[in-house]
């Protein structure tokens, strides 16, 4: 049994030890293969890294990621850790991140019953999420113009209500890739949900299953896919799995085969981020924490003044490949028989190519405005498809995400030809403040009620009755460019 002082001596790239859950790990050989980069671990070298690890990872991941030979044994109990973790040392407010409630001002979060729209959930999340989690979740690229336009695009489409119809019973059921869902809304793949709640994606899975909906699980989830499956509300709950094509193609092949065996119903490939966007709010907060770390550090040689700092987003950049092309669909099809969806289509031209390549679905998405600022909103891309390639409608399933916050947003997307829409950030916000599964279900119930009431107001009792004649797109059409296919 080693002491913490002995562990602290191994705080360099050539000999890097960390303490996680009371056990000492020699992660020297693991540094360069860590998806977030070596610096993330080196900042905690020689220290107790449990808080940072537990914030974003499941305990079961240790056995998969680090070999048994790297586990050196337990650390000797010695009271408070001599070297407190970076976040907890330099930003005292983050000391509450291990609390299931994650309350920072000593007040109890408002009861769910008083939250009546998705903006309410966002305001609560801003108040109660750890600052680094809030910055990572909310931040968009550069000036965040696209993040704003995603939402405003829905405001530029008007509803044309029909009256004097029997709308006593409203049915929002539909299918996505042949899988039943209680409403045309799914959970978009999101990263690091454990920053919002200790159960992370597992809480979302349990809530979504109970609501009869579908979750698209991210390959960079903070919980293993196996744990998410176990958290399902019922055994036949449908899941889709999202991947980034890793620069190491063997890892991508192994991942696809693994999730297919575990019961994933489709593979969604994200293609809108060959490089990581510049998310300034995320990077700025990280920079402030780093500066405090440099000033307070009792160890030398790990981080130096002037060293470039990065936000949480950039720690995930190693998962991205800049060499992905349409030809990659060939070996992906040889890897799996599951339906394939391309996520990140941003123009009618690429929508047509995806259809010609034979994929089963496309997601019109600009990554929530987190990759390229001033990219056009997905709803505008859908209108572009409707005007210049209407033959795609009905021949391929079309989904979109980004900026959806109201039942009217879902209704407008469906009227223009979408099969379903996705939301990402709102599900993360609904987990925060200790709400967990109950928060997710409350938020879903709000969206369901808004969709049902607005379907009734336009005179539709089933989704098949939602037609293009129910929307006025003249304002949004002003933003269309001329396209010659």
From TrEMBL:
Residues 110-476 form the FMN hydroxy acid dehydrogenase domain. It is found in: Mitochondrion intermembrane space. Keywords: Flavoprotein, FMN, Heme, Iron, Metal-binding, Mitochondrion, Oxidoreductase. GO terms for molecular function: heme binding; L-lactate dehydrogenase (cytochrome) activity; metal ion binding. Residues 1-76 form the Cytochrome b5 heme-binding domain. Belongs to the cytochrome b5 family. Homotetramer. This is L-lactate dehydrogenase (cytochrome). It comes from Oidiodendron maius (strain Zn).
């Amino acid at each position: 049994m080693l002491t913490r002082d002995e562990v602290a001596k191994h705080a360099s790239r050539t000999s890097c030890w960390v303490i996680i859950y009371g056990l000492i790990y020699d992660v020297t050989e693991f540094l360069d293969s860590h998806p977030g980069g070596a610096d993330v671990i080196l900042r905690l070298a020689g220290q107790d890294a449990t808080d940072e690890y537990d914030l974003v990872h499941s305990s079961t991941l240790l056995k998969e990621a680090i070999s048994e030979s790297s586990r050196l044994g337990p650390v000797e109990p010695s009271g408070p850790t001599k070297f407190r973790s970076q976040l907890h040392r330099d930003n005292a407010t983050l000391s509450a991140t291990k609390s299931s409630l994650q309350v920072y001002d000593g007040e109890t979060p408002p009861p769910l019953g008083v939250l009546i729209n998705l903006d309410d959930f966002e305001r609560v999340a801003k108040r109660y999420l750890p600052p680094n989690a809030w910055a990572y979740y909310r931040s968009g690229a550069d000036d965040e113009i696209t993040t704003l336009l995603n939402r405003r695009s829905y405001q530029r489409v008007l509803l044309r209500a029909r009256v004097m119809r029997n709308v006593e019973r409203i049915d929002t059921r539909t299918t996505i890739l042949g899988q039943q869902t209680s409403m045309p809304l799914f959970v978009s793949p999101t990263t690091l949900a454990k920053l919002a709640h200790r159960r992370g994606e597992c809480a979302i899975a349990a809530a979504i299953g109970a609501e009869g909906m579908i979750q698209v699980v991210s390959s960079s989830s903070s919980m293993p896919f196996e744990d998410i499956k176990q958290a399902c509300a019922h055994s036949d709950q449908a899941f889709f799995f999202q991947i980034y094509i890793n620069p190491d193609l063997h890892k991508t092949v192994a991942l696809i085969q693994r999730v297919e065996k575990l019961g994933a119903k489709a593979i969604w490939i994200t293609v809108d981020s060959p490089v990581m966007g510049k998310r300034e709010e995320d990077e700025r907060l990280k920079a402030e924490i780093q500066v405090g770390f440099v000033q307070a550090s009792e160890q030398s040689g790990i981080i130096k003044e002037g060293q470039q700092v990065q936000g949480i987003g950039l720690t995930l950049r190693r998962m991205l490949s800049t060499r992905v092309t349409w030809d990659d669909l060939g070996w992906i099809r040889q890897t799996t028989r599951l339906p394939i969806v391309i996520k990140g289509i941003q123009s009618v031209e690429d929508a047509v190519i995806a259809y010609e390549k034979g994929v089963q679905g496309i997601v019109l998405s600009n990554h929530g405005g987190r990759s390229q600022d001033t990219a056009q909103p997905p709803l505008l891309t859908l209108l572009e498809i409707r005007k210049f390639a209407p033959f795609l409608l009905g021949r391929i399933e079309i989904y979109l995400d980004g900026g959806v916050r109201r039942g009217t947003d879902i209704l407008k997307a469906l009227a223009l030809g979408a099969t379903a829409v996705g939301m990402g950030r709102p599900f993360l916000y609904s987990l925060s403040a200790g709400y967990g599964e109950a928060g997710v279900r409350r938020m879903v119930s709000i969206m369901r009620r808004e969709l049902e009431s607005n379907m009734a107001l336009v005179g539709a009792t089933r989704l098949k009755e939602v037609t293009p004649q129910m929307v006025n797109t003249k304002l949004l059409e002003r933003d269309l460019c001329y396209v010659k296919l």
